[in-house]
Amino acid sequence: MSQGVEFNRLMLEMRAMQTDAMARAKPVQALPEPGAPSFSEMLGQAVNKVHETQQVSSQMATAFEMGQGGIDLTEVMIASQKASVSFQALTQVRNKLVQAYQDIMQMPV
């Protein structure tokens, strides 16, 4: 029962993040707003966040394996799945960027 509750909480959290991102979405502008982060900065932040998520997952798994108190198996599994999903999402973003670059390079001039 605890796993179902954790999964539901995770899904609600992801939906809230999606709603927040959709609310912030603005039309594409020709010039970036002053003080707005560049694409490379945003991509770097995303990579750092994925790395951080993977480290937390690894630390939780190690703590559970060592028998430290207060670490539940469901928490370890959820952290592991978060790390996996975030890495897969980052990989898909990378694949889309590579594909877009290849498409642009193949355009006739």
TrEMBL record:
Subcellular location: Bacterial flagellum basal body
Key words of the record: Bacterial flagellum, Cell projection, Cilium, Flagellum
GO molecular function ontology, one term from the record: structural molecule activity
Record-linked Pfam families: FliE (PF02049)
GO aspect biological process, one term: bacterial-type flagellum-dependent cell motility
Keyword GTP-binding: no
GO annotation, cellular component aspect: bacterial-type flagellum basal body
Sequence similarity: Belongs to the FliE family.
Protein name as it appears in the record: Flagellar hook-basal body complex protein FliE
Organism field: Stutzerimonas nitrititolerans
Origin organism lineage: Bacteria, Pseudomonadati, Pseudomonadota, Gammaproteobacteria, Pseudomonadales
Gene name of the encoded protein: fliE
